[in-house]
Write a structure and sequence with these properties.
Blueprint: H1 18-29, H2 40-45, E1 49-50, E2 56-57, H3 74-78, H4 86-100, H5 112-123
Parallel strand pairs: 1-2
Helix pairs in contact: 1-4
Length: 124
């Protein structure tokens, strides 16, 4: 980044379709199983929370938080900032998750048991 830039900048990635992100994650993890799509109504009915905390799904925000997805990295880019390719970022995250243990206790997300129960409920 240029030394002449002062203040905060959003060093976030470019806008991507969720399908593209999930396809990249699947490739990185070797997932070849089916993709199960759940509607917002069904997820809420099954007790799944938005974004963070117990029983939550990351990357899922309530509709009233649409502003979250309008952030721009234009100032970061103009200042000389460069973004790592999505597939490289995902590879690093997956490697870190595996190193730390994918079954470790977490403060957010679905446990493996909760995830399996949710997928079973969607299959019915």
């Amino acid at each position: 980044m240029s030394a002449t830039v002062t203040g905060a900048v959003n060093a976030i990635g470019d806008v991507r379709d969720l399908e593209d992100v999930l396809r990249t994650v699947r490739a990185s993890t070797g997932h070849t199983g089916p993709v199960i799509v759940g509607t917002e109504e069904r997820l809420v009915a099954e007790g799944v929370a938005y974004w963070a905390g117990p029983r939550s799904l990351p990357l899922w925000l309530p509709p009233e938080m649409s502003g979250f997805m309008t952030r721009s990295n234009a100032r970061y880019r103009r200042s000389g900032g460069r973004l790592r390719p999505l597939d490289e970022t995902v590879e690093r995250v997956v490697a870190d998750e595996r190193e730390r243990g994918v079954d470790r206790e977490r403060r957010a997300g679905l446990t493996r048991t909760e995830e399996r129960a949710l997928l079973d409920a969607f299959a019915r």
